[in-house]
């Protein structure tokens, strides 16, 4: 297995754990790992009547910065673009929100920091 395959497997595991953590908080999983030209949506979840696009960011430690710091304006634009594709492909028109779930540590000692409405579509 190559290191990029290892990294992908670790990322998928973190995203699964993140989805479970959010489901424990009352969200429901609709889709995960949605790929679009120019972007990807980690988790698409429902929170009441709101469709929530969740970006999961993981770091084993914060020596090189907090995972929340990695959601740059460029990354936000890509997420908004991907979300628009998702909405169009599924013919959806509903309230939407962009959340970021920062995950630090290694399983089973993960720390989650959930920022609801982390940014607006522009």
Automatic annotation (TrEMBL):
Highest taxon in the source lineage: Bacteria
Entries under InterPro entries matching the protein: Restrct_endonuc-II-like (IPR011335), tRNA_endonuc-like_dom_sf (IPR011856), UPF0102_YraN-like (IPR003509)
Pfam families: UPF0102
Signal sequence bounds: none
GO molecular function terms listed in the Swiss-Prot or TrEMBL record: nucleic acid binding
HAMAP family per record: UPF0102
Cited PANTHER family: UPF0102 PROTEIN YRAN
Family: Belongs to the UPF0102 family.
The protein, known as: UPF0102 protein H1D44_07645
């Amino acid at each position: 297995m190559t290191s990029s395959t290892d990294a992908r497997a670790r990322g998928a595991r973190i995203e699964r754990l993140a989805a479970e953590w959010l489901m424990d908080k009352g969200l429901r999983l609709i889709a995960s790992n949605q790929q679009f030209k120019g972007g990807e949506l980690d988790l698409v979840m429902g929170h009441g009547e709101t469709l929530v696009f969740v970006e999961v960011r993981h770091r084993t430690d914060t020596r090189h910065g907090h995972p929340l710091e990695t959601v740059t304006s460029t990354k936000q634009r890509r997420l908004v673009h991907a979300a628009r594709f998702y909405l169009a492909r599924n013919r959806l028109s509903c309230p939407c929100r962009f959340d970021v779930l920062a995950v630090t540590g290694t399983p089973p000692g993960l720390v989650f920091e959930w920022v609801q409405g982390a940014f607006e579509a522009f």
